[in-house]
Design a protein that fits this description.
155 residues; alpha/beta; binds 1,3,4-trihydroxy-5-OXO-cyclohexanecarboxylic acid; Rossmann fold
């Protein structure tokens, strides 16, 4: 039987429309692509000795399934989740429930500062269920979240 790995495992979920990063509203989200963001995350994860699992979906149910799946992995490994629910941030009670249902540290991230934008983006339905929310720092929002989880999961 294989031994459970001691390395922490962090899943990153990019929500709807983040597949268009770089092309979509670059004045807000920047001109770098999702591949570039994932490359930066992989480089940092290698330095921190964290195993990364990177996902993107435009579908709420798929995101919920991926959040729930973390429960199964957490029975074997030390697990954390970084999630950018994108547009679902402001609407999805179902994603909030999924986050509440996993007993692992979850950090919500946003590239932009949602409080500096239109009023409809000022509340996060999903963020209230998370350990913390990091926003407004572009790619660094994700990188800061990964640094925090790497420290917390090896503590
Ligand atoms: C976002 C902010 C959301 O309001 C928006 O719907 C997104 C991206 C961000 O990363 O800044 O799609 O989550």
């Amino acid at each position: 039987m294989s031994q459970p790995s001691a390395r922490p495992w962090v899943r990153v979920i990019h929500g709807p429309n983040l597949n268009l990063l770089g092309a979509r509203e670059p004045e807000i989200y920047g001109s770098r692509s999702l591949d570039a963001l994932n490359t930066s995350l992989r480089e940092l994860a290698a330095q921190l000795d964290v195993e990364l699992d990177l996902r993107q979906s435009n579908h709420e149910g798929q995101i919920i399934d991926w959040v729930q799946e973390c429960r199964r992995v957490a029975s074997q490994r030390s697990v954390g989740l970084i999630i950018n629910p994108a547009g679902y941030t402001h609407t999805s009670v179902a994603i909030q429930d999924a986050i509440r249902g996993v007993s692992i540290p979850v950090i919500e991230v946003h590239l932009s500062n949602i409080y500096g934008r239109e009023a409809l983006r000022h509340s996060s339905v999903t963020g209230v269920a998370c350990a913390g929310v990091i926003m407004g720092f572009g790619f660094d929002s994700y990188l800061l979240a990964l640094k925090h989880l790497a420290a917390e999961l090896t503590r």
